[in-house]
Amino acid sequence: MGSFTLAIQGLNQVLLDNSAVNINTVNELFDDVNAAFEGVKAVHKKMTDASIKPRKVSLKVILLGASNVGKTSLVNLYINKTFSNECIPTIGVQKVTVDNKVDMDVWDTAGLERFNSLGPVFYRGVDACVLVFDVTSRSSFESLDKWHKESLKQINRDIPFVVLGNKIDLINRMVSEDMARNWCMKNNNNIPYFETSAKFNIQVEQAFKTIAKNALAQRPEQDDNEIIKLEENTSNQDRRGGGSWCLC
Predict the structure, then answer these.
(1) Which residues contact 50 (CB under 8 A, 6 or more apart)?
(2) 245, β-bridge pairs
(3) Within-domain flag for 96
(4) At what angle do helices 204-218 and 71-80 cross, to 10 degrees?
(5) How would you classify residue 3: left for phi > 0, otherwise alpha for psi between -120 and 50, otherwise beta?
(6) How far apart are CA 182 and CA 162, in angstroms?
(7) Segments forming the whole domain that contains residue 134
(8) Beta partners for residue 194, in sequence order
(9) Domain containing residue 116: CATH number
(10) What crossing angle do the helices spanning 3-17 and 23-49 adopt, rounded to 10°?
(11) What is the pTM of this model?
(12) How many structural domains compose the chain?
């Protein structure tokens, strides 16, 4: 079993065993997870330095937002093609291969929003960020400001964002599409916005495909002549789940 898998399992076990776990303990465990993840990226870099073309590019994508907005459901639907109304609140890291060209590790913060600030370790090495809110919850929409500012502060460099207004299948909507798009226009040079439903698989794949394309285009080490082009239409054969480290 790889060190990355072991590190994730150790983090999840602590969260499950102790609901009052201290944020410092969580950050120490995140150090182990990130060290293993950086090891994977280092292998790709060594292959490139040795003029050996790596099989795929690796991206780290994080999901941020208030509790119960559907972050874990969105990830599970995109990667595993499954939906459930119930999920154990754990840190999840799931790998997906896009167009057989990009390995995208999607980090889900499920359960740790109670700390309000996740700390610098979680944000280390991030290539892109997905902000999620529930269209039936005004407070989750208003919390986007907090998560956006927190991520900009912790990452301290320019990365692409995507905003997802989730649960559009529900009838008691409190946040209009215009409100969400206006927020995106005012922040970070018009952040791409998608209205999604994890339950009915509405625009979920398009949203993750956009974040992958934008993250690739913004990688500083990516030569302009060697930017990997992702197909506009992704079939089930082009997007494969490559393993997961989530107990939900």
Answers:
(1) none
(2) 93
(3) yes
(4) 90
(5) alpha
(6) 14
(7) 55-222
(8) 164
(9) 3.40.50.300
(10) 170
(11) 0.71
(12) 1
pLDDT in tens, the chain (248 residues): 456 566 566 666 656 665 555 656 666 666 666 666 666 666 666 655 555 555 568 899 999 999 889 998 898 899 888 887 765 555 567 777 777 778 888 887 755 555 555 667 778 889 999 999 999 999 999 999 999 998 898 888 889 999 999 999 999 999 999 999 999 999 866 899 999 999 999 999 999 999 999 998 887 655 444 445 555 544 443 454 544 433 33
Rounded Cα distance, 78 and 92, in Å = 14
Assigned domain for 36 exists: no
Q: Are 191 and 94 in contact (CB under 8 A)?
A: no
Residues 6+ apart with CB under 8 A from 43: 54
167 touches 130 (CB < 8 A):
no
Q: Is residue 67 part of a domain?
A: yes
In a domain, residue 114? The reply is: yes
CA-to-CA separations, 22 to 30, 68, 112, 122, in angstroms, rounded? 13, 21, 11, 15
